[in-house]
């Protein structure tokens, strides 16, 4: 099981802040993105950008990072604080 | 981390109070502060902004940035405050304060923390204007500002 | 110079008040402050210090330094306060504050002003210790800090 | 006539904060230093350093700067404010 969170414009466009993925058999963040993109054309489109940032267990990682079962994975647009 | 104060909060902060805390440690003769405020857009019709964040990650990310600064420069007290929620025009958004025995270390560390906060800490701004609401786009200048620290040897 | 406040004074200053003045101009979203304080010597026996200056020249020199910063970076309000006379341990000596629309300009200008104040403004420190009185020697690191600005193109 | 001021350690060592030079026929700051050095061995020594800074009419100048009659010239050690 993987908990997936979305923030900011990505949260608004997908219409959800959190989904739980039970059936993920891939390995990396990129695989998880591909898995989520199968949900609908909208998900396909919104998660397609190379600009989507990923954090695994609250740490920024590259899309090549391996996702262990039980992880919290967050996807969000480039940050704009400060 | 000793002497590191990191707050993510809706409440406002007082720069005078934060300065006094930083200056109160009698070993460090240089104190640099940065404060960022909500300002009018070029278009002139900003009414407010909302700061969203990723609560479980925010303090971790800020702590990691401050730790990296402490590895690069000899620092005394360090304070980072970032507000979240709804902020109106001219409100304070962010405060970074650094004490050091060396003024150039205090300047460099404060700027380093801001540059990485802007590119690595999970905050997002949405602007509310008379024409609607818009998520702020990330600036490539912020990426460039953060990237230049990678090029610098830890010589300061 | 409009929006430039330069004070050479015996009286103390309040960083919170100075910050408020800098932040009060609603056009500029970034405020950087530097404060320098009297700290203990390595030898640990400082009792006080005396700041001498060249009154007819001091404000001229500081004004020239601020003008040069304004030519390099787009700045809002700028404040420079330098105390003179007798100062005891932990007292504030100097304040430099800069407002700008751009945080990197605010940081750079504040550091630039401090670097040149340290090498071009006519102030001299005498330390009073339990062992006697000593004029502080100029630091070559201060010369180096000022010199690096000459090497930088006005690209910021 | 040239008004000459001294500050900090230079003022203390020379034992004066101000002298008026009436008979200066040189041209540059370096000439004025040489002229002042003739006053005594102490003045000779204290003004010998290349580190002595000069301001003419409250502006830092090099020792090659020309001194006009009526100027205020100040000599002092490297500054240590801030």
From TrEMBL, chains A, D:
Record GO biological process: Mo-molybdopterin cofactor biosynthetic process
GO molecular function: nucleotide binding
Keywords linked to the UniProt accession: Molybdenum cofactor biosynthesis, Nucleotide-binding
Family annotation (InterPro entries): Beta-grasp_dom_sf, MoaD_arc-typ, MOCS2A, Mopterin_synth/thiamin_S_b, ThiS/MoaD-like
SUPFAM superfamilies listed in its UniProt record: MoaD/ThiS
Pathway info: Cofactor biosynthesis; molybdopterin biosynthesis
Gene3D superfamilies, A to Z: 3.10.20.30
Domain of life: Bacteria
GO cellular component terms attached to this protein's record: molybdopterin adenylyltransferase complex
Xref: Pfam families: ThiS
NCBIfam families tied to this protein: moaD (TIGR01682), moaD_arch (TIGR01687)
Record-stated family: Belongs to the MoaD family.
Protein name from the UniProt record: Molybdopterin synthase sulfur carrier subunit
Organism: Aliidiomarina haloalkalitolerans
Automatic annotation (TrEMBL), chains B, C:
Highest taxon of the lineage: Bacteria
Enzyme class: transferase
InterPro entries assigned to the protein according to its UniProt record, in alphabetical order: MoaE_sf (IPR036563), Mopterin_biosynth_MoaE (IPR003448)
Catalyses which reaction(s): 2 [molybdopterin-synthase sulfur-carrier protein]-C-terminal-Gly-aminoethanethioate + cyclic pyranopterin phosphate + H2O = molybdopterin + 2 [molybdopterin-synthase sulfur-carrier protein]-C-terminal Gly-Gly + 2 H(+)
Pathway: Cofactor biosynthesis; molybdopterin biosynthesis
Keyword GTP-binding in annotation: no
The family this protein is said to belong to: Belongs to the MoaE family.
Subunit-structure text: Heterotetramer of 2 MoaD subunits and 2 MoaE subunits. Also stable as homodimer. The enzyme changes between these two forms during catalysis.
Full protein name: Molybdopterin synthase catalytic subunit
Organism annotation: Aliidiomarina haloalkalitolerans
